[in-house]
Design a protein that fits this description.
With 267 residues, the chain is of the alpha/beta class. The protein has helices spanning 69-76, 99-106, 124-133, 141-151, 167-179, 197-214, 248-254; strands at 25-36, 43-54, 58-62, 86-89, 92-93, 109-112, 185-189, 217-221, 233-238, 241-246. The strands form two sheets. A six-stranded mixed sheet has the order 6-7-8-3-9-10, sandwiched between helices. A four-stranded antiparallel sheet has the order 2-1-4-5, with helices on one face. Helix 3 (124-133) crosses helix 4 and helix 3 (124-133) packs parallel to helix 5.
């Protein structure tokens, strides 16, 4: 079966799901390369990445395992230091920033990772409250934590510790922790991987509400085809290169195997 043709994404090119020209840009990546290792072991894993994410957009990033999706996600999230090209996040250029400055950038970003990373000695509510404490709003932390846990379907589990929660419930606590402060940017790495169909749908619906009501920008890495419909754009990263940037309908059409013409087998 032949490979699906894709169109390389060039700097400044308008994407099918792009926002209007006047829309605020939350993330702007230009000619970004990234390498692992040093000397003879140095290996390039991202090649000439050019990408813009606009305020209020939900963008899904797909691609094979090992294609650089999580690396790009962590660079945008200021969890790694970019040294080439340009990487502007929420108006701040990240290339060349020190660790302390990167920490400040991360305060405005909500992170959802495959590993829930909960504190085992704290209850679900207390894990979420820790994120609220970073904003200095101590008086309302319990109220806000409880409200967001109810929104992700854990209203009856607020006082349970992680050991008493299922894998899917732990992931929902982690999602609540990322969303509680209504961040300007959410970066999610396989957020629905541990969730059943309905729980996954509830979580992405909540993300949609944040994007629409708060103008939050969401970049989500996923292999979950059940949630592709929530995206404004779907970008495809292959072997460290951004190969396509489409809307969901175009993505599905491009990746659906077409019926074979039986005449092609006639000798």
């Amino acid at each position: 079966m032949s490979a699906v043709p894709v169109q390389p994404v060039s700097p400044g090119a308008a994407s099918p799901g792009a926002a209007s020209p006047g829309a605020e840009i939350s993330v702007q990546v230009q000619t970004l390369d990234y390498f692992f290792g040093q000397g003879d072991l140095r290996k390039q894993v991202l090649f000439n990445i050019n990408l813009e994410l606009h305020r209020g957009q939900i963008v899904i990033m797909t691609g094979p395992s090992g294609s650089g999706k999580t690396t790009l996600l962590t660079l945008i999230g200021a969890l790694r230091s970019a040294t080439t090209g340009s990487l502007r996040v929420l108006g701040q250029e990240l290339v060349g920033l020190g660790n302390r400055q990167l920490v400040e950038v991360r305060r405005n970003i909500g992170f959802i990772f495959q590993a829930h990373n909960l504190f085992e000695s704290l209850t679900a509510a207390q894990n979420v409250e820790m994120a609220v404490e970073l904003t200095g709003n101590l008086r309302q932390k319990r109220q806000r934590a409880t409200a967001i846990l109810e929104n992700v379907g854990l209203g009856d589990r607020v006082d349970y510790k992680p050991a008493a929660l299922s894998g899917g419930q732990k992931q929902r606590v982690a999602i609540a922790r990322a969303l509680v402060n209504q961040p300007q940017l959410i970066l999610a790495d396989e957020p629905t991987a541990a969730l059943d169909k309905q729980s996954g749908r509830d979580v992405v619906t909540l993300m949609q509400q944040l994007a629409q009501e708060q103008g939050c920008t969401i970049l989500m890495v996923t292999h979950d085809n059940r949630i592709l419909d929530v995206a404004d754009r779907i970008i495809n990263l292959v072997d460290g290169r951004l190969e396509s940037d489409t809307n969901p309908q175009q993505f599905v059409e491009a990746h659906t195997v077409k019926s074979l013409d039986h005449n092609m087998f006639v000798m």
